[in-house]
Amino acid sequence: MMAPRLPVQGRSPCHAGAAVTAWRRPSRCDLTLARAWRARLVLVICMAWMAALAGCATPKALSPGQAQAVALNRQGMDSFAGGDMVRAQQAFEAALQLERAVENEEGIAVNLLSLAQCQQRLGKPERAVALLDQVLDGGALAFHPRHRAEAALQHALLAFQRQDLAAAERWQRDGAAICGGCAMAGKLRALGARLALQRGDAVDALKAAGDALASSGDDTVEKANALRLQGAAHLALGQQPAAEAALLQALALDKDGGLPDKVLQDLQLLGHAGADPAVQRRYWRRALAVAQAIGKAAAVEEIERALSALPLESR
């Protein structure tokens, strides 16, 4: 049995298993991801500076350049979240120059990765590739494996976007090899699961989704992604009860996280996983209400077709 393809709404390069898209108006899912990314960005830079100050009897204040870099990163993330990729790019480029001036590897890598995402959103994948290659090559600098693994992940997503699945799989494997057990492991395994589903290998997809779930830790977004992929793999194997169980867990997490695009994906898949037409109809109707609420016209049409294909309700 072939499972339905995973619904694709609110795609973001931050989500493993999501294709990278050219610039569009950001969804509420994008804004949530941007806020999480901003918090990680500031934390990474601050941790690097604190490490540099370790051993000092009296912690010193940030230098003017360091404080400016933090401010620029925040400005870049605010612009990114608001959909202004040009301003975001300008802020990240200015921050990158400040980080290069003091050879802050953490800051350099993070800003290069951020700039690559801006270029992806601006529809300039060739520029994104050049930025990612700087992180992967490093030159005289030694970038942390998690940053190099994230660059490989972004490469894989770009390949996925252009439907070059062989290249996407190569980059996913390279990223996993670089990462080992780094913080990007769960995202890379989730992408591996999606690629396995794409090539029709549901057994491999189920294993990869399980590995992604085990690597998700306290990250509820990644946990929900892994559970959604598990559900899709179970559907492909004809295992509707197991699919429904996994998807209901994903749905609960996505509702708690306030991620409407993901809630819609969960409900659409649940529409296929229901035990009988009456249960399926309830899931599809819930999906229809969500799709209408967030203005997903294509999803509304798809859901209405699915509802019309179900047997008529008994009176």
Care to give the gist of this entry?
With 315 residues, the chain is mainly alpha-helical. It contains 14 helices and no strands. The longest helix is centred in the N-terminal third of the chain and has 26 residues, at 28-53.
Give me some keywords for this one.
315 residues; 73% helix
Give an account of the 3D structure:
It is elongated, with a radius of gyration of 21 Å. Helices cover 73% and strands 0% of the residues. Residues 1-5, 7-36 and 42-57 have low confidence and may be disordered. The protein is mainly α and 315 residues long.
List the helices and strands and how they pair.
Blueprint: H1 28-53, H2 64-81, H3 85-101, H4 105-121, H5 125-137, H6 145-161, H7 165-179, H8 185-198, H9 202-214, H10 220-236, H11 240-257, H12 260-273, H13 277-293, H14 297-309
Helix pairs in contact: 1-2, 2-3, 3-4, 4-5, 4-6, 5-6, 6-7, 7-8, 8-9, 8-10, 9-10, 10-11, 10-12, 11-12, 12-13, 13-14
Per DSSP, the total helix count is 14
Q: What would you call the structural class? A: mainly alpha
Helix content: over 70%
Rg to the nearest angstrom?
21 Å
